[in-house]
Amino acid sequence: MPAASALAERRFWLVKSEPDAFSWQQQVANGTEPWTGVRNAQAASFLRAMRRGDRAFFYHSNVGKEIVGVVEVAREAYPDPTEAVPEGRAPRWVCTDMRAVGPMPRPVPLSAIKAEPALAEIGLIRQSRLSVMPISPEHWALLCRMGGWEG
DNA sequence: GCCAACGTTGGC
DNA sequence: GCCAACGTTGGC
């Protein structure tokens, strides 16, 4: 089907990274980068649900605590090469490839997200430890407005 | 540095 | 299968 249908089906996500481990600046420098290291069953199931062309906010956890950019799913889930698979066992974890799309003109801090009543139900707040989560189209649009993102 | 949330592990 | 102990994440 044409692009309109693919666009309508595009889903939105938020992925977290500690900038000390892997930062937005590194993502930009590398262009496309495997999103590895997810070791949580719920987060992994969200990675598996990602489709090529889906977009995600890139959030800096611990240091910064703000949405700093937008990435796009460039390759759907495949076995995470950083997993140490025990002898005779099947690989368990997956990664996706993420491509940097662009920086948020105004990074959106966690404090601003918490201060916005319309975002009270967002996974980032309700389940603070989850590192990969879906974002509803409405929340995506609102966060884009808050960050000055014209996408 | 502390603590809440929560996932995992292991004894029973 | 239950649950205490422990480890990790991530905000404060």
From TrEMBL:
<protein>
    <submittedName>
        <fullName>Ubiquinol-cytochrome C reductase</fullName>
    </submittedName>
</protein>
<dbReference type="InterPro" id="IPR002740">
    <property type="entry name" value="EVE_domain"/>
</dbReference>
<dbReference type="InterPro" id="IPR047197">
    <property type="entry name" value="THYN1-like_EVE"/>
</dbReference>
<dbReference type="InterPro" id="IPR052181">
    <property type="entry name" value="5hmC_binding"/>
</dbReference>
<feature type="domain" description="EVE">
    <location>
        <begin position="11"/>
        <end position="146"/>
    </location>
</feature>
<dbReference type="Pfam" id="PF01878">
    <property type="entry name" value="EVE"/>
</dbReference>
<dbReference type="InterPro" id="IPR015947">
    <property type="entry name" value="PUA-like_sf"/>
</dbReference>
